[in-house]
Amino acid sequence: MRFLLVNIEEVFREAAARWTLLAYFFLSTLFIIVFAAAINLDIVDGTLAGARLFGQDVEMGGQQVNLDRLVLGFEATFSAFLYMLGTFLAIFATAHLVPRLQDKGTIDLYLSRPVGRVPLLLSRYVAGLVLAATNVIYLVGAIWLLVVWKTGVVHARFLIGAGIIIFVIAALLAFAFLVGTITSSTAVSIMSTYALFFVSAMLMGHDRIEAAMSSIWNARLIHALWYILPKTSDLGRTTVAFVSEGQMGGPEVFGTITLFPFVSTAVFGLACLALASWVFQRKEF
To answer: What's the Rg (C-alpha) of the chain?
Structure first.
């Protein structure tokens, strides 16, 4: 446990020294400030009588709008945006952790400590995940507090949605660690992980893709990839549907949320971590 805490501290120190930490939280803070300044609401007796978005009046049709439903819509929309923003910032800020670890002087220093290679790699992974989770919680928590302050409406679902975002980041970070362990390249880790995110998202329509395949083997390959790869698009839709209580993403999505995308993504992440640990254990430094 002490070694884990030391590693977390070292990752934060390293991020601060390389300006990554500052850039990470500056971008998040900039988005929060823009959000706070962009939306002005005129609330009368618990309903919305008027709104201004980026300085422009929002047409209300001469009617008051139910505030609770409006807030759900806002939170669902921003949960989708934060899902993308939080994930992309997390990968960009943490993909260097393994390549940096394998630098000649750095790895010699770490291996001189009385700690095995696998605990070293896994503690580095946990430290990176803590860094990413801290930013996600900061983003989601700040937006949630602003919504509560501006509207007085409290929805815990928006906060819980941050857990799904962190879960997806954990799986993608495990893949980034695997690529980083094999290639020792930060750029390759980032590009590969972003590619995985988009390929996995496209495979949400695997049924239509399989039907378009000219060969049954190609169709089976697409189906196998859909089972194996993390369900980034499914989990994104699940986040929106959960936060909005089915108002966005469709009631059919909200009513058919299953554990399969979570289980499949978790298995993928654990497999990547296990393989990364095996490769890191066998590498010569």
So the answer is: 22
100-110 in b/e form (b: 16+ CB < 10 A) is bbbeeeebeeb
Domain assignment present for residue 241? The answer is yes
Amino acid at residue number 201: A
pLDDT per position as a tens digit, 103-128: 877 787 877 877 788 888 999 999 99
**CA dist 23 to 17, 30, 172, Å?**
11, 10, 21
Tell me if 272 sits within 8 A of 178, measured CB to CB: yes
Which among 198, 187, 257 has a CA at the least distance from the CA of 229? 198
Asked whether residue 214 is domain-assigned, the answer is: yes
Task: Report the predicted TM-score, pTM, of the whole model to 2 decimal places.
Answer: 0.85
Which residues on adjacent β-strands are paired with residue 56?
53
> How many angstroms separate the CA atoms of 25 and 27, rounded?
5
Element (H, E) at 9: helix 2-17
Q: What percent of the chain has pLDDT over 70?
A: 84
Range of the domain at 11: 2-30+67-282
Q: Is residue 132 part of a domain?
A: yes
If DSSP codes are grouped into helix, strand and coil, which group holds residue 144? Answer: helix
In contact, 30 and 48? CB cutoff 8 Å: no
Question: What's the structural domain count of the chain?
Answer: 1
Report if residue 150 sits inside a domain: yes
- Inter-axis angle of helices 156-183 and 260-282, to 10 degrees? 30
Q: Is 45 left (phi over 0), alpha (psi -120 to 50) or beta?
A: left
